[in-house]
Amino acid sequence: QSVLTQPPSVSAAPGQKVTLSCSGSTSNIGNNFVCWYQQLPGTAPKLLIYENNKRPSGIPDRFSGSKSGTSATLGITGLQTGDESDYYCGTWDSSLSAYVFGTGTKVTV
Amino acid sequence: QVQLVQSGAEVKKPGASVRVSCKSSGYTSTSLGISWVRQAPGQGPEWMGWISDYNGNIKYAQKFQGRVTLTTDTFTRTAYMELTSLRSDDTAVYFCTREFCDTTRCFGGDFWGRGTLVTVSS
Hints:
heterodimer; A: mainly beta; six-stranded mixed beta sheet; three-stranded antiparallel beta sheet; globular; B: mainly beta; seven-stranded mixed beta sheet; four-stranded antiparallel beta sheet
């Protein structure tokens, strides 16, 4: 069982906006940076957001990240069919001394 | 461009060991390393550990301590992950990813290899 909890699924129509949540604790999200990853079927995770709210080069600004206390959020605006994917949050857990990933959210467009 | 090229799929019997390689190119850094992340079928990613590119520092996830060994060949820029005493629940895709870690924590992988499927079956 992961220490980071995400809703199993979210759906919205093309062009709409979705927000994905990631809930943790003070030993992980509360005191460490959060990343967000997109994983298409059969492929490696792709980094979308790092250090809570920064986008790597090439990631469109339709993707945004934020953190408040022990929770983090990924926002996706202007949903496209190509955004259908699994999304995982990730952060360091100081109690486990390990990088941990969330349970994952499947986005359906 | 940054590339992480992993070795091919493996099929192993329970109790055996497996070694997966990850050759990196396209970047130079004295502050990065390689993490190994596995993903069982239908499950989320699971971090196994990290090895520095430059000073040999290693972090292991407690779950795998004693059963996983991370090594690196700095001349060929190849990282290796060896997992011993394989069980059926070790069947997973094993990824390597470039990651920055300091003395106390890691910050998430940015570039990832394509993954290596390891199947453990009698």
